[in-house]
């Protein structure tokens, strides 16, 4: 069986807990940058006012801004604004007092006078973390759905009513297709979306009852006639029951199988 002749399309990067942690860290960094911007604006305003008072009236040209002032009002402020807009800061719904308290706590820690994380603070931290997770879940597309979308658009893969995706790579000899009640001789090789081979789910010329195959694989076999070959992409709902998901396969990922139907066994009389 030449599994190398049937490549499996790469899937979009899988997002998990790392995305949630990234979102929380970016959120906190954004708030810190906002605090720094506020802190820098006050000295700058005072400096400009003092310059205006002391400078002789005969000097119409204002004093040039220092490099530090340009940094405070330029890219750092723009970065803070960008991060706030892209990380849904307004959706937290904090009041001005709550935001001020947050900045005060950060400043206290910066100055070596950290505020202990008591039970109330831990509860607040957990609540914010859950809210950020929900925001990210809404914003990020479902990885499996994105994977199948790419297959349909770029690989010419077809979809059945059950959600199974497949592409026939070689037509068979014609004739009948197996049914769920049949026993067949097949070869199949399983892979993950990233191409990782599933050795425990790969067989060569094995005799099996169609009903004993994974639901998605069983459906795929029934699409072939003897001699036919296909790439069958099985969604999680047509793979394993939740309580029987193999430990060595990432939970909830689609599975790809290269399948060849060699024979439909005669029915017993």
UniProtKB/TrEMBL annotation:
EC number(s) given by UniProt:
5.2.1.8
Isomerase as a keyword?
Answer: yes
Question: What EC class is this?
Answer: isomerase
Give the Gene Ontology MF terms in alphabetical order: peptidyl-prolyl cis-trans isomerase activity
Q: Where is the PPIase FKBP-type domain?
A: 181-265
Q: Which UniProt keywords apply?
A: Isomerase, Membrane, Rotamase, Transmembrane, Transmembrane helix
> What is the similarity comment for this entry?
Belongs to the FKBP-type PPIase family.
Protein name as annotated: Peptidyl-prolyl cis-trans isomerase
């Amino acid at each position: 069986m030449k599994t190398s002749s049937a490549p499996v399309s790469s899937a979009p990067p899988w997002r998990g807990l790392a995305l949630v942690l990234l979102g929380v860290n970016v959120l906190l960094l954004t708030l810190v940058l906002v605090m720094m911007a506020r802190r820098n604006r006050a000295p700058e305003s005072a400096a400009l006012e003092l310059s205006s008072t002391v400078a002789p009236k005969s000097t119409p040209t204002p004093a040039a801004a220092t490099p530090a002032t340009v940094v405070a009002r330029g890219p750092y402020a723009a970065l803070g604004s960008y991060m706030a807009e892209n990380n849904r800061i307004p959706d937290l719904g904090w009041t001005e007092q709550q935001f001020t308290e947050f900045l005060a706590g950060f400043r206290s820690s910066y100055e070596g006078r950290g505020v202990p994380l008591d039970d109330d603070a831990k509860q607040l931290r957990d609540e914010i973390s859950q809210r950020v997770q929900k925001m990210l879940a809404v914003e990020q597309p479902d990885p499996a759905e994105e994977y199948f979308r790419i297959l349909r658009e770029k690989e010419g893969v077809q979809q059945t009513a059950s959600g199974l995706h497949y592409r026939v790579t070689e037509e068979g000899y014609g004739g009948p297709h197996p049914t769920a009640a049949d026993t067949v001789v097949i070869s199949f090789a399983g892979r993950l979306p990233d191409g990782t081979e599933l050795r425990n789910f790969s067989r060569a010329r094995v005799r099996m009852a169609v009903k004993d195959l994974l639901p998605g694989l069983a459906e795929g076999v029934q699409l072939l006639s003897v001699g036919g070959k296909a790439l069958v992409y099985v969604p999680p709902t047509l793979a394993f029951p939740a309580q029987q998901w193999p430990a060595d396969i990432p939970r909830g990922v689609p599975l790809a199988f290269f399948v060849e139907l060699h024979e439909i066994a005669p029915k017993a009389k």
